[in-house]
Amino acid sequence: MPQNKQIVLDNRPVGEASPANFRLRVTETPPLQEGQVLVRHHYLSLDPYMRGRMNEGKSYAEPQPLGEVMIGGTVGEVVESRHPKFKPGDAVVGMGGWQEYSVVDADQPGALRKVDTTHVPLSYYLGAVGMPGVTAWYGLVKIIEPKAGETLVVSAATGAVGSAFAALGKARGCRVVGIAGGAEKCRYAVEELGFDACIDYKPHPDAHSLSKAVKDACPNGVDGYFENVGGMVLDAVMLRMNAHGRIAVCGMIAGYDGQPLPMAHPALILVSRLKMQGFIVSEHMEVWPEALTELATLVATGKLRPRETIAQGIESAPEAFIGLLKGRNLGKQLVKLI
Amino acid sequence: MPQNKQIVLDNRPVGEASPANFRLRVTETPPLQEGQVLVRHHYLSLDPYMRGRMNEGKSYAEPQPLGEVMIGGTVGEVVESRHPKFKPGDAVVGMGGWQEYSVVDADQPGALRKVDTTHVPLSYYLGAVGMPGVTAWYGLVKIIEPKAGETLVVSAATGAVGSAFAALGKARGCRVVGIAGGAEKCRYAVEELGFDACIDYKPHPDAHSLSKAVKDACPNGVDGYFENVGGMVLDAVMLRMNAHGRIAVCGMIAGYDGQPLPMAHPALILVSRLKMQGFIVSEHMEVWPEALTELATLVATGKLRPRETIAQGIESAPEAFIGLLKGRNLGKQLVKLI
């Protein structure tokens, strides 16, 4: 029975989230029942959607219950198994949460998946070849439906989703433009992630100003937009959407901390005959195999070379998560647990 | 050469549109060239989209040029023809504009179409069996894609588009709820147009209050919404959309007169995984035959019994148009020209 350190949600944020919303708890892993597997986590994934779960109000998912282990994707290895399909040493991906070990009912569909680490590093199954990669794939392929030669824009461009979006968009013959916070991130986007251009939103005081920068970076207008942030960035890009443009809405992180942010010009949906569609990738499990295959190939062939920002130890998870919300990470934010 | 009275746009509105934006002009119809047809208009259609055209700024169409005859749909009869497919007495529908006669290049695709008035009154080709009817059809069938048993909502419920929407939605086994201004319109919606319920938005001071009325009228939430007005009504309905709801955006008339109206809760697009799509029916000519066939059948079988509000004489068009914008009409607003 190994000792298991866990992070639970202690209290809900009022305004901005902070490390004080979380609490460390130390337990022991329980003995396995028939059909269960004990997984030792190597990496915990930190993702923006977790901020939405911290709030009380109904979002698309139930709020994270207080006093329970924070939800989260994990990769690791099987250390003990009472399930015929898993054996000690298997590399697995699952939703183990913010803790060092998890006990998984392995018969539950989608609960635990074996992965191959020959060509893809284990941690990538939480990023480029995992939920964030499939998120980019779904928004691009199923909502934006790009044609070669079109111009695509993605916000939070250097994050796990944005990085994958760039590689997937370039593979389809599109011009791909990122929006990110800071010159360093923008340089990284162009030099390492393959973006054709990247706009630093930080010097822009308002949507009007940012919109001019979008115009400069997208001389033929914007055909497809992948929205990770909302607020001023959404307003700015909407002003540059071409007729019949498509907007995949994946995140509205700008509005998580307080009052809901309005959309300045909804009449553009009509004027430019836009399609805007929100989605959650976990509701579209049918596309995962196809998407993961393409993403793994992009990684194996060096066309998708994502970076990771790695915090060490479960105790560092709260601070690392707040850093992610503030954009301090470059690429996929992980916590290394071994 | 008959005398032809025309209404031209004289100056652009500052804030609200008014009859003083228009000017009457009297001319003579020119002699016909080969391939042309002279049409005497029986009815002129007045439609909300015309308000958008009066503004200077680029909308989805070029602005209406100053000093030229206002654009508009017309039905009438051929009085003289130099085109082999048309002869005097033919009933026709076209875009003749705000005038008593028009000279039409009948070879131009879509410029002039012969219609059958055996089962459908001529004026209906400007409403239920015309552009407004096809508009309702496109938004419902191609964007909302309703399933039997779902709940649909339409704003400006008693107008030409809303009336057709109700009949089309009921034909698909849906619960159809209208939103309109005033108790009289709501009574008409339920008693004559077949709406299951109709909400009078006028007593509601804000979106929150209106949203409660939407909840009462739609106990199972809203699956499909057809938006004709924007502003507070859109905000109110969005709060009641079910997961995976669809919003067809056809009009944003609430914002035509001044500052753009924001959307209060765009994050709902993500939270409820909504699809919002703007459209202009003239860009989808491929659906017109199928749509018109269904609409004509609904009229012929008494399942769609639209009302008309009819002003007399071309001189009354500006005042009638302002009345339409203020919601003074019941059903399709027409101007009778003979």
UniProtKB/TrEMBL annotation, chains A, B:
Keywords: Oxidoreductase. The keyword Hydrolase does not apply. The keyword Cell membrane does not apply. SMART domains: PKS_ER. Pfam families: ADH_N_2, ADH_zinc_N. Signal peptide: none annotated. Residues 17-335 form the Enoyl reductase (ER) domain. One of its GO terms (molecular function) is oxidoreductase activity, acting on the CH-CH group of donors, NAD or NADP as acceptor. This is Enoyl reductase (ER) domain-containing protein. It comes from Tibeticola sediminis.
